[in-house]
Amino acid sequence: MRSGIVVIAALASVSLALPGSILAGTALEPPKDTCWTRVVNDWTKDRKVAATYRIRCYTEAIKNGPADLLTFSTFEEDVLKARKRAMRTCVERLGSVAACGPEGNARTSPDYQCWTRVIDDWAKDRHVRPTHKVRCYSDALRYLPADLRRFTDVVPEIKRARETAIGRCERARGAGSDACRP
After folding, report:
1. If you average pLDDT over every residue of the chain, what do you get?
2. Of 130, 103, 92, which is closest to residue 140 (Cα–Cα)?
């Protein structure tokens, strides 16, 4: 009888030390939506990395990916192949190996230089439509040639379209989303 009381007391003291989420059987909070989690989610859909991401996202997915995926699947090999393709594409587009290394931050998706499309959009009829990603407008303002900045009204047009795009993005993805930041 005394050993039963000791066991019950030991279990009670252990249960008091455990966080409530573990006792309730709930998982810990998932990590914030980061680029490496998007790589993991992309792969888990069909065992392929279909989209293209910043090169560091592939590296971080391998470093931070769930242990069961890394141990019991082809996840690591598939992500390494996708990263290698992304690095090759990056070097072809940028001509720079520095930005395209395993920890590189270069974009490898087709919209890498989407800011040029913003300027092309303006050049058609001197009006910028809010149909591009928010980042594209910010990059257009950052890389805008000096003569266009000085001698045209393109800057207010880009800013107006960017504000509209931010509003649309926040309605779709929620305020504070990384994709909606200028």
Report:
1. 76
2. 130
